[in-house]
Amino acid sequence: MAYKMPKIVKKIDKFHIISSGRLSPEKGHQDIIKALSNVKFDFLLDIYGCGEYGQELKNLVNELNLNNKVRFCGFSDDIATVLASSDLQIIASHIEPFGLVAIDGIYYSPLLISTNTGICTKILPNELIFKTSNLSEKLNEIYENYDKFVEIFSKIKAKKDDFSIEKMTEKYLKAYESLIKEIG
């Protein structure tokens, strides 16, 4: 999968947040929705993905009166443009062994935050990692100090080529070769 340049899309007036991935409880979309019900700023959350948990998430949005602030967008074949046109991408997974969503975020999102799971723990600084229990506070802090957080993330984005498919394949091959040498 080659990374491409996103289309230029006009930003919206609200703080635009993206969450993408399969709609299932372990992906944490419900945690994002609950946290956003307690923030102090106007936002629009677009959730991209499909899955069996979609109806439960829609019910939660309805229950929290967030119908005009949360959209379910299904699958997108142009995630580059989706992420580039946002203000923030959130990965709230409870379990994420690797996470191509994070690599997409490094390439395209202006800012990415994540739970303390998967590859994000290796590549994101502590300022961009959150606990689900304090996500509302983290979102308020990001909104109030947005440029500071974008600057922090820009240091990660500067190293994005380290996460290209070619580089990642090379790292996996070296790991497998090392493992084979140990076993053999």
From TrEMBL:
GO MF terms held by the record: alpha-1,4-glucan glucosyltransferase (UDP-glucose donor) activity
Keyword Plastid found: no
Keyword Repeat: no
InterPro entries assigned: Glyco_trans_1 (IPR001296)
Domain Glycosyl transferase family: 7-148
EC number: 2.4.1.11
Keyword line: Glycosyltransferase, Transferase
PANTHER family: D-RHAMNOSYLTRANSFERASE WBPZ, GLYCOSYLTRANSFERASE
Protein's recorded name: Putative lipopolysaccharide biosynthesis protein
Organism: Campylobacter sputorum subsp. sputorum
